[in-house]
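Box 3.1 A note on notation
Throughout this textbook, protein chains are presented in two layers. The first layer is the amino acid sequence; the second is a token string describing backbone geometry. Keep the layers aligned when reading.
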Amino acid sequence: MTNSIAEIENNDALFVIGSNTTECHPIVALRMKKAARKGAKLIIADPRRIPLVKFATLWLRHRPGTDVALMNSIMHVILAEGLEDKNFIDSRTEGFEEFRKAIAQFTPEYGEKITGVPAADIVKAARTYAGAKNAGIYYTMGITQHSMGTNNVWSVANMALLTGNLGKESAGVNPLRGQNNVQGASDMACAPAVLPGYQKVADEAVRKKFEAVWGGALPAEPGLTATEMTDAIIGGRIKGLYIMGENPVISDPHMAHTLKALKKLDFLVVQDIFMTETAELADVVLPASSFAEKDGTFTNTERRVQRVRKAVDSPGDAKDDLSIIRAVAARAGYDLGPASAADVFREISALWPAMAGMTYRRLDSGGLQWPCPTDDHPGTPYLFKDVFPRGKGAFSPIPYIESKELPDEAYPFVLTTGRILFQYHTGTMTRRSDALEAVAPEPFIEISREDARRLGIADAGMLSVSSRRGSLQVKAMVTDRVAPGVVFMPFHYHEAAANVLTNDALDPVCKIPEAKVCAVRIEKTAEVAAGV
């Protein structure tokens, strides 16, 4: 997030797109509801009637995969009505004229044809967002998990630049992280093109700095992303894999493709706290510790670094991740050096200027938000106050590109996927909770009342759902939450895993898969059709 969670309740306007915030980020959603109660204008852009809609000033129900067309149309109105922040554009941005030309065709009427959102609502959204003194944008994987996900994110940035909503309090571009330390993992280089602190591996000076501390040579070329590894395994370029804290069998799109790859490996190691569906395929399982069983730091969605302290001992042979990694490295003949999480943190602070001012002593009295470059720095609640890292913020001309797989005669529905409040990710932890299972024990597929009537589908009736990649059986949930022609499934349930169906087409830039849009066919099962 460019800004902070506490700032949300002081937004004058909030634009929430591709984020079922109430169910996926309930604490953040509480701040949004508080802002709405204080008079903030809340715009929701989502194909489903998510719970946050009841607090919204305006709900834009756009077709899945049409986010760029929607945002371009909103920005077209902002420019047509002179609502842009001209001073901010002139002093702090570049590339504006090329961007202006790129959105010239995206009139509200043109946007309506693509997105299904009435032109009048597009105009209202533009006036509401651009007319606010402080407006924040909030998004999650409903924006990113597309074959044009990078374009979606650039469009979000364009909206903030156009209205001067970057570099100030209670505004900004705010991707909400979906797990407790995803931001920390990203900061520490769990991506193939960077070293810790987003320092480019291709930069020779950066490599030399890390090589001096780590005592070894680093590759100059980025490696593969997780999604690229699957094809590399099938193509014979990867023979062994080490998976930590992930369950790709359930979480990755096109499950059959993932299973084919994992089963082809010569050697698979899984390090996790439970025996997941992925761990069941492993040659070696290394039992790891949970958050309550180790020391260290987590970094949350607002860039706040916080101490984690061991509260209980690990069960059985489980060990903390650092101990396991050091032990494996030692067996391979390499001494990693630092013996504790505190030692590692000191190394991080020495190698990444944005955390140079952080110490365990300072964190003991509360978390700090990076950048925090010096010992007396208070941390940074919001980014880009005076300058962008590249100097001026760059507008990006973004075309509308359709999703890779759209409905047709054979597969007439659009399937989109996501999370629900009472389950989490692949269910590895939450499905072991009797209380949570009692509330949300089984998978379902949401289908509109109109489609259910047309197809003769009853609520809780069993359906066969098929895509070009696989099929499954699941109960129907007849609802007004989805529009006709759109269906929704949560992906938590192994017994009807939504990712059996989803498309693994990748965004060409960041290589994220298109989990949010694919074409499916829905039929009543043979038993239901026969009246059994």
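The domain at 178-223+315-374 is CATH 3.40.50.740 (Rossmann fold). Residues 528-532 have pLDDT under 50 and may be disordered.
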